[in-house]
Amino acid sequence: MKTFRFTKAAAALMTLALLLVITALPGTALADVSSVTITPNSGESYNIPVGGTVTLNASMVQTGTVTTNPVYAWTKGNDNVDLSAASGATTTVTGIHVGSTLVTLTGNDDSLVSANTSVTINVVAMTISASTLALEGGASAPLTVSNAVPSSISWSTDNAGVATVVGGTVTAVGGGTAHITATSAPASGDTQTKTCTVTVSPKITLLPTTQNITSASTSTTVQLKVDYGGDLVSASSTVAWGNSNSTAGALTSAPTTFTPSGSSFICTATYLSNSTGVNGTSIITATINGAATYTTSKTATIEVRTARYLTLTGDSTLNSSDRYGNYIVTLHEADGSVVNDDTSTVHWSWSSSYLKISSAALNDSRSDMEDGTAEIQLYARYNTPTAGTKLYAWINDDSAHKVSYTIYITGLSSLPQTGQDFTLVYVFGGLCAALLVAAGVWYGIRKKRVTNA
What we know:
Blueprint: H1 2-24, E1 32-40, E2 47-49, E3 53-63, E4 71-76, E5 81-83, E6 90-95, E7 99-108, E8 114-124, E9 127-128, E10 132-136, E11 140-142, E12 145-146, E13 153-157, E14 163-166, E15 169-172, E16 176-184, E17 192-201, E18 203-207, E19 210-213, E20 219-227, E21 238-243, E22 249-253, E23 259-261, E24 264-273, E25 279-289, E26 295-305, E27 309-314, E28 317-318, E29 324-332, E30 346-350, E31 355-357, E32 373-380, E33 389-395, E34 403-409, H2 416-419, H3 423-452
Parallel strand pairs: 2-8, 10-17, 19-26, 28-34
Antiparallel strand pairs: 1-3, 3-6, 4-7, 5-6, 7-8, 9-12, 11-15, 13-16, 14-15, 16-17, 18-20, 20-24, 21-25, 22-24, 23-24, 25-26, 27-29, 29-32, 30-33, 31-32, 33-34
């Protein structure tokens, strides 16, 4: 009985002593982990390129007395990334392969209670600003890459005779096709490449693009020049010439091969205007037949004015507030000067449905050319269609070279009977009136006879 009482008393004393120790020694109570968090360094992102990095920082929220030395562990979901440390408050993640990885942080304290959290790290693929470029010889254009470590980028070309590249700037140096490649080779991670296909056109001119000839049997030249021929145009390429109007003039010299001139290729043709007076336009075409199937053409215009010609000017629009239009026909020499002509007869033609002579007195001399000009005044009758109506003029018997001028009339009434004038109406109206008069006369005569009877 005494032994039992002693044992019970001893147990009570030990429990009391333990309670005294716990309450007398602050800071020795066990803490519980509430949560852990992951944050990247300032300015860094969970999206990184191959070879790029992001530093992750761990933190812990605890309940109870805070543990001064929490324990952290880092793990990754796959091999798309490397971790600089598997434990500790920080770890640096490096992108190795394109793809996503889950990085998990686990934290625990003295109580061996743990918490964890995860973030997704995206290792993104390198991109290039353009997959194709079209340039003319001598031109330049920039290329850039994204989602890559800048120091890991190098540039190259597979055809330096067509396009070169320095620091991403592409320069077209010759006709043809080149592939510009950007390579990213970081210290850690996969090597990536992106390619842009560059198409370069030779710089080709046919000059002058326009020129005028005002004398018969006069020569001029047009020069075809090729720069930056590259793979497409060389000294062995051929040229074919064409002339759209042999009446105006002819190509008296049309070489089919180029002559080298420095880095350029030259081919010059000679054109001779007609020996008789003629007005016309020749479109000169030069077609280059280069390497393989490459062919291209350039054109130039030659205006031949070796004969006199007419011009017609005046009011192009008439309306309800301005129904009078004045028009002047002028006879020019081939060089554009006005002919001192007082003998030619001018002929005019217009649609009477829309226009008429304003006054016979004012237009009495419309057919007489004086000092190379003649004038007419017309009066607007009805609205024209949207295409307008034409006024024509020519001199003497040369109607083949008449000139025209378009006149637009608005703000008036439209032609009756959907565009037809009143000519037939007037004719039938006159006939009806005549019949009525005849009927009245007949009726009067008959009535008089009946009365006399």
